[in-house]
Specification:
The protein has about 110 residues and is mainly beta. The chain contains one helix and seven strands, in the order βββββββα.
Length: about 110
Amino acid sequence: MPPVKGMLRPKVTILPASALPPAGTLVAPPRRFTHTLTTARPYYYSPGRAKADGTFPPGTPVKLVSVHEGRCRVVDGQGLLVFTDCAGLQPLSAPRTTKDSSKTSRARPRSRHR
């Protein structure tokens, strides 16, 4: 593609393979979240890792998948499936449900005109 006059293009760089998350840590993002992170929390690709692989910002919504050795496995809105400390999770309030409509609804009156 020929250069466009007056437009500067950044130098192309290719990231190393280590910049990609490990296989199995990217899944389909959840449709609903169960928890939010109360503060910035580190996350780990495996439960036994000592060094954090990244950090979630405070308020990040996640879906709790499981609990393993004191760490919770969660998936965020980008589909990142990782472990984080359970202490940083706050459950979202449960959605309000309506009463069973079969018990509270009334039968529709029949039309007199047929």
